[in-house]
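Recall from the previous chapter that SMILES is a line notation for molecules. Here it describes zinc ion.
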Amino acid sequence: MARFLTILLALLASGAYAADAPPPAQALIDEIAARSEMQRNLEELCDDIGPRMTGTRGLQNAQEWAMRKLAAYGASNVHLEAYDLGRPWQRGAAHARLLNANGMHLNVLQKAWTEGTRGTIRADVALLSARTMDDFNAALPRLKEKIVLAEQTPREAPRQALREAGVAAVLQVSGKSDGLQDMWGGPGQRYDSNAGIITGEHAALLRRLLARGITPRMELTLRGGFAVRPVKAHNVIADFPGSEADGDMVILGAHLDSWDLSSGANDNGAGVVTMLEVLRAMRAAGLKPRRSLRIVLFSGEEQGLLGSKAYVAAHAGELSRIQAVLVQDAGSGRILAFPDMEVEGWYGPLNSALAPAKVLGDIDVHYAKGLGSDQESFFKQGIPAFSPLQDSRNYRTHTQHSEIDTLDHIDHAGLQQAAQVTAILAWGLLNGERLPR
Ligand SMILES: [Zn+2]
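With both inputs in hand, we obtain:
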């Protein structure tokens, strides 16, 4: 009788436990709501470490920090994987000033991964706004020895055409609003020397002068350039093995590198701390997935997806084991939708994995192709690779790549929802049906 009671009580207890234990999605929501470490991690990454341009000490510091975090959150196999970066680029002083008209200093920065001006250039400014190759070719002769404000060039224009036309320098216009700077550039780009980026307002000043028949004359100094020796760049890799040894894996990715004008809070500190938080929350909630989870923190994203391209090349033999890749790289706003990459067979499994996240918002799977960050490198190999559409507010117009991508512009509520949705989706992909190739 006593033995029977003991067994009965044990059965009741286990039954009661199973009924009370929240399903995994709710456990992940609760864990992230109650004990998120994202704010603290962003402060460490952005306020302590700061800018993390690929090839710099800042990025190395961030990689060491990330590896410590991943290990502390219970990941195994935490390591760096190297690839060739070439000669790393270093920013130097930049100076630009009008020599006529109102004589103002102009907000010009050197475009990244370009050679500097080797001294100060003084030249007249000419406008290049060419939509077609005919317009472009017709404009070339009058650009010789000019500082060219390149507002529009046809995509098919030969890469070295302006250099061969003998221009003194090229200025491209910042894509940001409100006097903010912007940054881009990487190996193999169109303007590889004497190239600057000018704010929209200061480009408009030059354009107004030209429209009134006044040729702006300007001086320009760009002192950045390349280091002498080529170096390696690295991706950070970490694993949380699933119960199926040597089974498939789900990769969560974000780029740890940033541009150098600010501390890269939204681009892409937000994505990095989200992926760390997903791992932390799964472990803290005691969840063990069927498939394995791999976290990859890429570098060189800003120079042209260099890190994810290197990853795909180095892991060619195991790409078939990847169930799906999730990349977050659109700031800290809440997740609104996931593009299905216009692959018919992916819509269903993605939608069912996402279903338990619908309590966090009306999150749809859209018929769309979301490219432009590291998911692209995987998608091009036929791997199911997704990146969410986020409520980006002023991300494209203000914070991304500008001098104000700081913690002040993090959407904390949005970031929490993004981590909860990503955790739920990752859990679904780790345990649900296999996505077709
Ligand atoms: Zn980014």
